[in-house]
Design brief:
One of its GO terms (molecular function) is monooxygenase activity. It contains three helices and four strands. With 100 residues, it is of the alpha+beta class. The longest helix has 18 residues, at 15-32. The protein has one domain (2-92): Alpha-Beta Plaits (2-Layer Sandwich). It has helices at 15-32, 60-66, 70-79; strands spanning 2-10, 36-43, 50-57, 83-92.
């Protein structure tokens, strides 16, 4: 399996707009994409404008398919303008909670 961890620092005052776009994307990804096993949205306790997206896909092709979905495109159309900084870590998944 394949994972990405997306670290996103938002522009000041944009948290509500980010969550309004990102949470439906995360929900639809897990619900509607067979290749998406997890899409967690994490908010830093010390810095509420810092987020991590933890996503697990069956493989890199499933991530590529994710980027073609309507929910991904709708989310990106909103969140791109809200981002101050963003970085992505790519990793292989060696173990996963079996209840997922």
């Amino acid at each position: 399996m394949y994972s990405i961890i997306v670290k996103t620092k938002l522009k000041p005052g944009t948290t509500d707009a980010f969550l309004a776009a990102m949470l439906p994307n995360a929900e639809a990804s897990v619900r509607d994409e067979p290749g998406c096993h997890a899409f967690d949205v994490l908010q830093d306790k010390a810095d509420p404008e810092l987020f991590w997206l933890y996503e697990i896909y069956q493989d890199e092709a499933a991530l590529a398919d994710h980027k073609l979905t309507a929910h991904y495109k709708a989310s990106r159309a909103v969140v791109t303008e809200l981002i101050a900084e963003q970085s992505v870590t790519r990793a292989g998944v060696l173990a996963m909670n079996p209840s997922r």
